[in-house]
Structure formats: structure tokens, C-alpha cells
Q: What sequence folds into this?
């Protein structure tokens, strides 16, 4: 089984990784952790100093690599017999995740219900929704345990 | 209310809802669950929802309508029991019970998860367009509104069945 975990630096992504760590997986399951860096569309104009932007982007990519290393280390520790890889992918978030799932032949994409741009008041972020719409494989949308309500009274009919 | 804890590990028992419908696809979803691995004592609720038929109105409340409704309910119950047997046979260390609800599938699945404090909902998703998980409105609504994690299991197209037969033969292993 091949499990693709798409993360960013949000708490929701950490919960998605935690969810993978908590579960048990079939033997020979492979894990791949990716984070997406969107391209910077710069508009050149006279006198523009792009150096700070590129410096900032390089710093961001370094942070992304650290984050990937951190998460892959957690997975390797928890699943020592599994193959674990990680990569920073450049592209538009949704299409990059879906394309990675296709090229890597993922069986399952795991992602948080929201990314760093997500609004907490919404129950499903746009990235999660779009990935679920376009994915070639199963998709697990991980939601925070804290978001769960107390159980309501039972009024269901059991068979 | 916190979930019960595994008597051996002390870990909270994982609660998983498998929401099936009464189409031929329900077996695919159950099989997808059985080829996965689950913690010992994972509790499964196999759920189906009977949505009201449009003609089930007081005006047409004839004996025939009543009989058809009973048949639908009986068929749904039979499918649930078959599904539970497959789960119990292939994942004997886990528990499984069934629940039949009436109403809107999208609402009842979300409510069932909330009332039972489910950790995850497994839901089949496919569409008429290729590679579209969200083509059905029920998966989309459940993914949007459920408070727990939702796994949208991509159902195979009929032509994929042969290629997946070997996977189906595997049984789940419990840790």
C-alpha cells in the first residue's frame, strides 16, 4: 500500500501525520510525505529589488525541508520496516498533490481538513475538497479530535 | 464522552463507521476495510440509511407502498448483516454492529458519527466522470460536515475488478 501524506506547516497537517502514526498499516506500506511550494509570480518593473524575495523563498524552502525531515523521521521511527520518503514539490497545491498521487501510484492520500490558508470556521478547506474531487485514489481527510462534539442522545434504530 | 479503552493496551478504542448503500458497491467498501489493518478491539458500525422514496406520501399510502417500504427495509437489514459477517470473519479481533437509519443519508451519516463519537467514517466515493471522487453529493456533504476524519474510498470501475481480485483475497491483520 502506498500512502501519500500532503502537509504544510499548519496544525491540521500535524494532525494528519499524527493520524497516520496512530494507525496500523499493512506490511510493506510505503509512505511519502510531500509539501508544496507554490511558484512566486514576480512582476519585473524598473528598480525592483528581487533579492529579498528570493532570499525569503530560499528560507521558506529550507523550512519546508526541515519539516519534511521531521515528519519522515517520525514515520521511520514508528514504522521502521516501511519505506519512507519525502520531498518538497513545486507547483500549485491541489494539482501538485494530485499529480504526485498519479505518478507515485498512491493508494491513499492523507491530508488535513485545512491548510495554512484554511479558515477554521469552515469544516472543509478548499484544498482538501479539490484534492478529494480530483484524486485518482482514496483520500482521507483528517479532522481535529478537538472539533468533535459530545455525542447526542441516541435516537437511531438499530438493526 | 471519551471512547472506551482497549483492555490490553489502554489505548482508546478506535470507532469506525462504514457507511454502505444498497448498490452492488457495498461489498467493495467492506473489502477495502478488510484488507486494511486495524488496532485490536477496533469497533465498527456498519451503517446504511434508507432515504424516503418520493412517492411515499400519505396520499399514496397504500398497502403496496407499505409493502415496498418493508421490502426495502428487509433488504437493507440483510445487506447490513452480510456486511457484518464479512467484517467479523476477516477481522475477528474487532467488534462490529449494524445500524439502519431512515432519512437523508448525508445528515444521518454525520449524525451517527457525532452521536457515537466515531473516529473515522469510511465512505465509498466514485462518479460518472473518471477520477472523480466527489461526484456523489453524499460523500461531499459528509466530508464537509463530519466532525471526525473521513476516508473516501475510491470504488473500482467494473473493469478494474479482475486486477484487484488478488487484493480482495487478503484478509485483515489485527495488531
A:
Amino acid at each position: 500500500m502506498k500512502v501519500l501524506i500532503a502537509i504544510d506547516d499548519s496544525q491540521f497537517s500535524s494532525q494528519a501525520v499524527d493520524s497516520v502514526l496512530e494507525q496500523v498499516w499493512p506490511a510493506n506500506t510505503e509512505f511519502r510525505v510531500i509539501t508544496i511550494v507554490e511558484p512566486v509570480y514576480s512582476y519585473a518593473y524598473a528598480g525592483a529589488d528581487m533579492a529579498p524575495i528570493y532570499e525569503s523563498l530560499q528560507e521558506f524552502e529550507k523550512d519546508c525541508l526541515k519539516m519534511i525531515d521531521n515528519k519522515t523521521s517520525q514515520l521511520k521511527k514508528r514504522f521502521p520496516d516501511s519505506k519512507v520518503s519525502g520531498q518538497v514539490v513545486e507547483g500549485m497545491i491541489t494539482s501538485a498533490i494530485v499529480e504526485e498521487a498519479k505518478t507515485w501510484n498512491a493508494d491513499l492520500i492523507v491530508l488535513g481538513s485545512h491548510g495554512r490558508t484554511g479558515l477554521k470556521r469552515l469544516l472543509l478547506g478548499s484544498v482538501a475538497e479539490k484534492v478529494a474531487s480530483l484524486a485518482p485514489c482514496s483520500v482521507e481527510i483528517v479532522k481535529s479530535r478537538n472539533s468533535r462534539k459530545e455525542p447526542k442522545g441516541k435516537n437511531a434504530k438499530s438493526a | 464522552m471519551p471512547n472506551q479503552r482497549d483492555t490490553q493496551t489502554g489505548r482508546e478504542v478506535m470507532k469506525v463507521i462504514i457507511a454502505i448503500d444498497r448498490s452492488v458497491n457495498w461489498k467493495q467498501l467492506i473489502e477495502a476495510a478488510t484488507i486494511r489493518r486495524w488496532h485490536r478491539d477496533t469497533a465498527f458500525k456498519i451503517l446504511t440509511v434508507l432515504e424516503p422514496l418520493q412517492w411515499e406520501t400519505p396520499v399514496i399510502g397504500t398497502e403496496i407502498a407499505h409493502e415496498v417500504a418493508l421490502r426495502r427495509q428487509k433488504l437493507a437489514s440483510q445487506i447490513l448483516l452480510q456486511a457484518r459477517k464479512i467484517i467479523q470473519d476477516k477481522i475477528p479481533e474487532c467488534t462490529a454492529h449494524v445500524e439502519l437509519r431512515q432519512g437523508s443519508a448525508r445528515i444521518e451519516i454525520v449524525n451517527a458519527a457525532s452521536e457515537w463519537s466515531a473516529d473515522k467514517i469510511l465512505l465509498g466515493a466514485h462518479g460518472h466522470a473518471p477520477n472523480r471522487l466527489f461526484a456523489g453529493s453524499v460523500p461531499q456533504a459528509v466530508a464537509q460536515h463530519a466532525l471526525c476524519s473521513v476516508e473516501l474510498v475510491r470504488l473500482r470501475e467494473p473493469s478494474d475488478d479482475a486486477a484487484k481480485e488478488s487484493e480482495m483475497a487478503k484478509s485483515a491483520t489485527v495488531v
About this structure: The longest strand of chain B covers residues 43-50. The first helix of chain B runs from residue 26 to 34. Chain B touches chain A through 47 residues (CB under 8 Å).
